Every structure is written in C-alpha cells, then in structure tokens.
Amino acid sequence: MKFFIYIFCFFMLNIYNAYAQKSPEELSSTCLGCHGVESYNNIYPTYKVPKLGNQHKEYIISALNAYKSGERSHPTMKAHAANLSDLDIEKIADYFSSYKSDEKLIKNSSIKMIDEANSCVGCHGVDGNSMAPTFPKIGGQYEDYLYYSLKSYKNGNRDNAIMKGIASTLTDDQMKILSKYFSSHNGVKKIDQMITATE
Ligand code: HEC
Ligand code: HEC
How many A from CA of 176 to the centre of ligand 2? Predict the structure, then answer.
C-alpha cells in the first residue's frame, strides 16, 4: 500500500511541476550557476561562459531556440534549452535583457575605431551595442568567447548564414583583433548569482 501511495505522490508531484508557473528568478537560477559566476570557463575548449545581462531579448530567444534545434551545438546548453517551454524562454529573455548598462559609459568611450571593424559596425554598431534586436550585442562580451564564436562560424560549428559568410573572410589574427576591440567596450554585463539569491 505504501508503495502505491508513493507512486501516486510521485505522479501528483510531476503534474504539479508541469503546471506550476515558475518566476523568471527561479527559471534563471540554474543558468546563473554558470552565467553568473565570475570568469566561469567552458572546460573544453576553454573560454568564458558568455555574459547575458543587457543582451537583446530577441537574440536570447533565438539563441535558446538555436540550441534546441541543433543549429548551435553545445551539449549542456542543448540540455538546458530543451527543458524550457516557449513561455519560460520568453521570461528568461525578459529577465536578462532587463538589466541595463550605463548608457553614459557606453557613449563616452574613448576607444578608437579600428579598420578591421568596418565590416561589422553596420550590424553590431561601432561599440558593439547593436540597435537591431536580432543582432547580438558584442560590446563588453568576454574576449575569448567572441574569438571562439568567430572561429565556430568559420568552421561550421555554429550554423548561421550571415555570420558564416563574414567569418570565413577573416584571418585568425583579424578575429583576435576584433575580439579584443569589441570586448574592451561596455555593453553586455555579467549578472551576479547573488542577485537572485538575495532578492
Ligand atoms: C554548465 C554551464 C551552463 C549552464 C548551467 C547554462 N549555460 Fe548557457 N551557456 C553556457 C556556455 C558554455 C555557453 C556558450 C556555448 C556556445 O559556445 O555556444 C552558453 C551560451 C548561452 C547563450 C548564448 C549566448 C550568446 O551570446 O550567444 C544563452 C542565451 C544561454 N547560454 C542561456 C542560458 C540559460 C537561459 C540557462 C539556464 C536555463 C543556461 N544558459 C544555463 C554554459 C551554461
Ligand atoms: C549583416 C549583419 C552582420 C554583420 C555585418 C556582422 N554580424 Fe556578427 N552577427 C550577426 C547576427 C545576425 C548574429 C547572430 C547569429 C546567430 O544567431 O548565431 C551575429 C553574431 C555574432 C557573434 C556571436 C555573438 C554571441 O553572443 O554569440 C559575434 C562574435 C559576431 N557576430 C561578430 C561579428 C564581427 C567581428 C563582425 C565583423 C567582422 C560581424 N559580426 C559582422 C549579424 C552581423
């Protein structure tokens, strides 16, 4: 009898979990275990887990769907994205994009534009803070993550028609210079794990 009660509870719990509406903070707390830890690294190859704060909402949604569909191949991110409903993804994207960076810091940047970036600024902006919400903000993103992304577009690991065309024209040196340039600006920011733990 005990066994059947146990089974019954187990099913009820599953039903409850399936219908319970999770808050954006609850949904994002597992994500912050990697995205909210200072300089947390992807183990192999080694690069920092990208910052999500102040990123465009539309881009976050499209990135999570790209992991779901396999357009972007990263086993852990695929597993996380696969568990999220469209509504969950919407809430998470709202949550991370709602953290805004200081506009004054972005505008007052004294970093000189470089020639290599000429072919990027039309979409990503001179400082990497793209206006169009489907073009990710790359200003302030970790340098080694930007470099890894550019290589991934070039070698086909990341399957995106626009960026594949662009990255395939870049040499390794140009990718390094561009990653350094855009990462030096202000833009996206790391959301501290403590924010959700304390609020
Ligand atoms: C185990 C660590 C880990 C966890 C947990 C994790 N991520 Fe990630 N996430 C990564 C790594 C590493 C990447 C970069 C993968 C790549 O190269 O495509 C990434 C990439 C992303 C991107 C793409 C960022 C960009 O600039 O393109 C989004 C969006 C994202 N994660 C959201 C989430 C959300 C939402 C959750 C929680 C539901 C989550 N992640 C949980 C490690 C993690
Ligand atoms: C025609 C518009 C366009 C141009 C020009 C362009 N990009 Fe992109 N870029 C995009 C889009 C769209 C994405 C998102 C693709 C995806 O979903 O993977 C992207 C993604 C990226 C990413 C990945 C960001 C992340 O968070 O994962 C990097 C890095 C990047 N671009 C760098 C560059 C650089 C450097 C240049 C110039 C050499 C450039 N882009 C030129 C449209 C553009």
Answer: 15
